[in-house]
Prior knowledge:
The protein is mainly α. 67% of the residues lie in helices and 3% in strands. It is built from 47 helices and six strands. The mean pLDDT is 83.
Amino acid sequence: MSTATTIERPRLTARLTEEKQHRITVIVAPAGYGKSTLLREFVAATAAQPAVLYRVRSAHRSELGFIRGIVESFTELLRIPPLHEYVYANGTHDLDGLREWFLQAVTPFAGTILIDDLQVATAGAQCAKFVASVMDETGPQIRWIVATRSLENLPIASWRSRGDAGDPIDEHDLGLTASESVRLARASGLAVSDQIIDHLAGLARGWPAAFAFGIRLAAQGIAAAGVATYTRTFIDDLFAEQVLCALSLDQRDLLLDTSLLTRVEPMLVTERYGVDADALLRSLRRDVSFVGIDSSGGYTYHDLFKEFLRREIRKEPQSSIDARVRRATEIIIECGERDGALDLCLDMEAIFPALDLLERIGFMLIEGGYLDVVERAVERFEAAGIEHPVVHAVRATLESLHGNYVRAEELFARAIATASGELATEVRIRLATDRLNRRDTVGASQAVSDCVADGARADLRLSLLTIAACIGAREGDHERARTPLDAAILMLAELREEAHVALAHHQIALVLYLLGSFERARSYATSAVQIAERLRIAGVAARARSVLSAIAGELGNAGVQRQINHDLRVMARTSRDPKLLFFALVNIFVIEIEAGHLAAARSVEAELHQFDPTLFGDSEEALYPAYALRAAWEGEFGVAYMYLRETDAALSPDTRRLLRQCEIALYAVACGEAEEGRRIAEVAVAMFERLGDDRRMLHSRALTARVLLALAKALLDDSRSAMRLLDGVKFATAVQRRAFDRFAQAARAFVRARATGDDRVALPLTRLRDSDLGGYALLIESLRDVPALRTFAEPQSALTPAERAVLERLSRGLSSKEIAAAFGKSRYTIDTQVRSIVRKFGCSGRGEAVYLARRYGMID
């Protein structure tokens, strides 16, 4: 109701204050009983205490939507981790995880959460159960006051039996008393007699909305003397007779159209319709009691009035409904409520506008973490048997996010088969991006091979260019990558929507990173993160941050990289985000292993063991080099080699593959596979020569590769080549110099000791241990015990102490599992050591290895 027909009712605010002995207070009554007004008055009366007022909208009807609405209502009261990032990483189906995320996020808050129109979220039994569980499990520092039109699906009896809630405040409590009816009539400023007031109060029977409307009618000389009572049907008839019929056709259309909005911004509506919306709504506000003004100056319609207007719209032909919905969704999107726009289409059964909107913003809603909104729309279409390429494409994207890649490919194929125009181009781009994320450059190239860019939107043409550039960069053809990249950068000026700019900046940053242009990549990635976080486009922000983290590693800034990932870990723990936590832990584990911080690495590894790594793509690729390096510290070079052998072929960019080749070569030589190590070392040397003075060779991966290859050459008794490699160590940044200068000095000392016996390695190793590359000091220390090449011809000399211990237990008939338990290692590690033993003996299996070991006298 408007301020002119609102009175303070202290008895009700006092009742809410008295109810603070309970954690949950429930207000239940039909529309028009002043529930919303009461909540606002309570917040104003207790302004000194922290309170959050949240009105549930149609877009909040799911479990995720309900949580999203509360989170958005907290504004400045509490800094909550980004929900959209949690959703983008974990999807919408883990309701227990979502509840835990929210409970953890609001733990610091102590105050009242007030919810209006709760019936929107609790209409479905499953969502109602979730809402109740959230309210049940919050701590005692949070009080809930909820207003609803229905108690259906709410566990009122359980709450009351536990003492969590008292008797609901119902329409009997909310109804107007005689004195309140008089005060409300006087507050209207209209000349109405006491006799009419008494008559209207009898008709309204305590219903505040009906009484306020009746006063307006009475002031105009209209009295419903023959009416037994006000009902919704009677009020609908009065709305139609007294409001709509008094308007011109343009005014009527404006009122019906704006009833589809959450709130009416007069200037925006006037610009769109060419009608003075402010004047019309000010006039309505004088004549009826169902138009109000919110705190920011926008107009709002009372639910009774809005529902009446929407029922009027539904009486129109479908073409007219669709036209009104299209106009409304344009305004809603402009106001930043993309989720509400799609839900409005579904609520009004406007199928064709919904399909158009899904094509326009569906993919961006997914990027923003509004998966529940998109899934709800897709499920509605699928249930109706609607076959449309955008439905298949959006479903394919959702399936891919859930890891169902085979199903996603099938749906993408169905979408491509029937799509045309820009939609066909966008679907192919989505498929290509999906394949690129799985490092399938051939498949990505095939996906966009038939795309026609002429005439397409600028954002689609730009995406095609960055995909082509990314394919070229990942395949090592930098010249093929630079031409489309330069064209994409020039095209940025054509983009009009910030969401497209954020995505384009991320795509360009990724290509620049793959090309080794790290400073430019960092600039674009930073811009992408800033825009995407402001627009809450979680997917773009997450991927752009991963580029920033990788750049920090390439530039040798382990401190920055460590801090980024520690911040991510804190965020992930706070938000109960398992994927984010897992990847933060993986990155930290790798950083700590390279730094030689064994205790810190073990602590992180203990957390990693709580996850199933098969659920997280590329986890093995990220962890195996660190596992191999740690194994090498203990002289387990055979284990290190088995972790990494034959894993280099599919890696990109070139520096990443080069580093892996140098790691494999070093571990192969160290474990006695000299010929294999020599072969891979020569492949790495050829790549060093091919890349030459390429700037990428100054960055951290290439520098690490150069030093590791020098160590492998030293083990191959080629000290001259080793020194040449070390003399070629140059630095791109001062940060790199601090660590890599020590790494190179320690490697030089090792090469000298290996070639001449000048064993002055201790001091350089001590200095290296104190750097961010301290883990490589432990590697070099272990390499000092590797025997000369000739001794590998004798299995007894080639076996490491750990392999001897494993062999001895094999001779006693112990299984790999039993040996692993005895040594406190994983079964995989023991099996790897057994394979290394078998290879060194040149035999067929563990039984023959035991036989030969006895023959050589190595075991009894």
